[in-house]
# Entry
Amino acid sequence: MGPLEGLLYGFSVALTPTNLFACFIGVLVGTIVGILPGIGPVGAMALLLPSTFTLQPATALIMLAGIYYGAMYGGSTTSILVNVPGEAASVVTAIDGYQMTKKGRAGAALAVAAVGSFVAGSLGVVGIVLASSWLADQALRFGPPEYFAMAVAGLLLLSRLSGGSLMHAFVMVAIGLALGTVGMDSISAVRRFTFGSTQLSQGVELVPVIMGLYGVAEVMLIAEAGIKKAHIATVRLRELLPTRTEWKQSGWPIARGSAVGFLTGLIPGPTTVLATFISYTLERKISRTPERFGQGAIEGVAGPEAANNGATAGAMVPLLSLGIPFSPATAILLGALIITGIQPGPLLISQRPEVFWGVVASMYVGNFILLILNLPLVGLFVSVLRMPQHVLATLVLLLCLLGAYSLNNSQLDLWVLVVFGIFGYGLRKLVIDPSPLIVALVLGPLMEKTLRQALFMERGNVLALAGRPLTATLLLLGAAVLVTPPLVRLLRGQRAAGTPMSTTAP
Amino acid sequence: MLRIIAIVLLLLAATPRQAAAQYPERPLTILTGYPAGGMVDIVSRALAEGLKKKFPKGIAIVTRPGAGGSLAVAELVQAKPDGYTIILAPLSTLVIHPQLNDLPYKTPDDYEAIINVVSFYSLFVVREDAPWKTVQEFIAAGKASPGKLRVGTPGIGTASHLNLEELQRQAGVSYTNVPFSGWGESSPALLGGHIEGLVAQPGEVKPLVEGKKMRVLMVFQAKRHPAYPDAASTADMGWGPVSGVLFVFVAPKGTPGPVQKYIHDAVKAAMEEPLFVNAIKQRVIDIDYRAGDQLRADLWKEYKYHTEILTRLGMVKKK
# Structure
């Protein structure tokens, strides 16, 4: 079956009433858990897993995958409206999304986020259809040394997300890296910095840290400001939609975000989070007006929101073409397939084409449903802002607590939430951006683990790592991007300083 | 007054019998120490479907990942021994982790092992296009250049890692162990040629063997595996007994006998449900019923066997 034939066959599977309904339920649940801060797609998928036991394999997968990418649509909503990320993958969206809300452009931000997600999801399907097995083979060329190089480059490049002081970013990164070492290390089962506590051996989770730094801190700021009338006046329908300029500004960021997201999704780890950081940094770096970022630049919403959806599509590639789950969410999809009697692997596409093509086609259908589901909801979501702030803040706090607990059913996560809530409040008072901490907490453990694996592989020979062409290229790339801007500035500065001298000399 | 005393006496006499007859009057919580979608999660959820009839108030699967699965067992042994909290624990969390780390449970005497549901053994795979067709060839290659060949395992101190150590000891060969945190990481490393061999589980490798991407050279069990008849067994290699993986339902110490029996009977019945049988067949592992004194004796045997291995490797926690 060729790609086009396969996709058409896939639509015939995905559009049967049962599968269409499963897809609708999946994306609806996904949108809802995406909106609720702290409660993520992984928890929801695990909860709904038993209900798929009696379903056909394709139907089960269509529904659960719908939750996965559906959550990427909903995640942006609270980021944009109340500065509380609904998912870890929507932290970045809050930076400019919330600023847009303050300027009365909440509707535009939400609409662009939905459209960006749709475009990325659709392009992702095209990527899977055309090049799934080729992409999977390419992804395999990356081993631990390459992942280490990517993590190092990522840490260097992404830790100065929203500009700001180098010193602040440095301290935040250090705290994030240190936090990443707490708990049982995944290589040798040794406990570190647990002070004898069995609880602490689970480590410091990303989600409660994010919910604390952003959600709880925001609630405390609202509480401090006292009860006020909502600061957004009534929004007219016309103002809900992006203006022509805003569309124009979003076009390329969405396209780049889709590509960045899809490619990032091909590697193991928390790629939906990483993809958004990469996309945001990229947009700010290549923008002609980088000073607009952090002040409500629509590119800062469009790019990352496309990227996180693109990453969910990319993550489906190793699952569908090799049967290997690269992330917790795809591990659940794999589990669902196994229980319904299917072993996904290289032969899935030929042995069970209805599953492979059905799911791929359903992702397109699902993204379409999400778009028509989310665009009309923009008005409804914006009206949330008219809710009295003390009610909204209480609701957010409750959801953060619930979400943090639901993650591991752990009380420790609640304490992490509280501690980082207070810490985040302090940072806001000092006007320090906590995002470098998040980047370091995501990349630190990955960097440590892959470095150790790489050194095992090369039997401790550090130089052998640099001898791997891909590793060296990635490290050089990171160094180049880091060194180039100051170098350019330096050269420009010299020329600028040199010009007047040469004119005055004669 | 007399009537009141009579009523009180009647109540006292009736209460224990009633309590036993009423179990379960609350939902059952099954803890698992691993994230959703993994093997333990799949087995416990598939079993929970079959358990529903015997637990009409409902069953909650609570995933409590962390510390390689031992965190959940640590919470279980500290839970109330009322029969409403049990755990599905893999052997490694029961006999390996408490010897590596300081945990609130030490030996099989510190909890009630109720029933074992499945068992399976690790196996050794290489890439389909690798030059080694048999495990003997891989051993010979290892002897020719000690430490050069790299073999992935799911982490130091896991059952698979100990299997690799056993292979090196028995064959007198040395490989470089590259620890990963599971199949999702280790299999791409093997397929991408970043390592030469991999210790993995039967169900994981099956689709990749069928898809002509991996070849099984050896199974770490006494008998050859029906799904991989060409792979050598430990008996073929002339080894002694090796350790596999068991999934045991465990309750806190002091859980009443009748309650344990209720759980045992319910799980035993659920092990025959088609949904569970099929899910297990998909993972090419075996349903393995063990209970009572035999299970306790098996756990003690495994515990002592691992004390020996871990001491030899210098991994036992220093007091």
About this structure: Residues 2-22 of chain B form the longest helix (21 residues).
